[in-house]
């Protein structure tokens, strides 16, 4: 029997798979687009899309447009999420951290025994988590006080068939014509609702269960809510946020970039470059935060609340 030929260096490379994976993905996406365009030409589908035009009517008291505070909340949210994802991934993959942080057992909060030593990556993750949760609380309060919640909370089961219509528009590359300044389409509404009211609370609840702040001696509580459940949910939730961000940014840029960026970053419904330049500046800040989130720059900050060392 002849021995199998040794694999070449190129074949062993992880990038070698892209040679056939990327063309396959392109072919599949093209097939999906062609299928969607064929379906939208069917009489029954056309009637369905007429009956359910893709958006759910808002209550008469619903606000129109985006206030300036929503733009700031949007930026702070993505700023914290970038650092949360970066530090969370480092915590998950770095099995031998080189820098640790130990909390000072002084001040208003004191614990019995010696403070637990954690990696600097975990310190960053927990610290930014706290800021993200604080920002989220402010967001929830403003959302309900100003009535903006009516724009992202379904009020009828018709949102489901309307979301199917919006999906057909997107997949067939026949972008929905309605503007988010007045009313989101049903698919956007469901996506934002899931992100704000399902994914975010899940991230907080599971993250809290895995943190040192969780009561370790609460036997019944720990039995009812095992840490294994939290770990099984927390990582997929992070992947959801990453996927949502990629799709969200892609559609923002593909469905009227200047107008969409003005909505969120300039708080107006005009078509000019103001929102774009604010968005570009925010990307610079995000890139700088990603680069600076390393021990050299984190040490001085972490040392304010504890001891940093090996």
Task: Describe what this molecule looks like in 3D.
The protein has 310 residues and is mainly alpha-helical. It has a single domain, classed as Up-down Bundle (Fumarate Reductase Cytochrome B subunit), CATH 1.20.950. Helix 6 packs across helix 7 and helix 10 crosses helix 11. The longest helix is centred in the last third of the chain and has 28 residues. The chain is globular and about 70 Å long. The protein starts with 8 loop residues before the first helix and ends with a strand. 18% of the residues are buried. The mean pLDDT is 89.
Question: So what's the CATH class?
Answer: Mainly Alpha
Biggest sheet strand line-up: 2-1-3
**CATH-derived architecture:** Up-down Bundle
Which secondary-structure class do the elements indicate?
mainly alpha
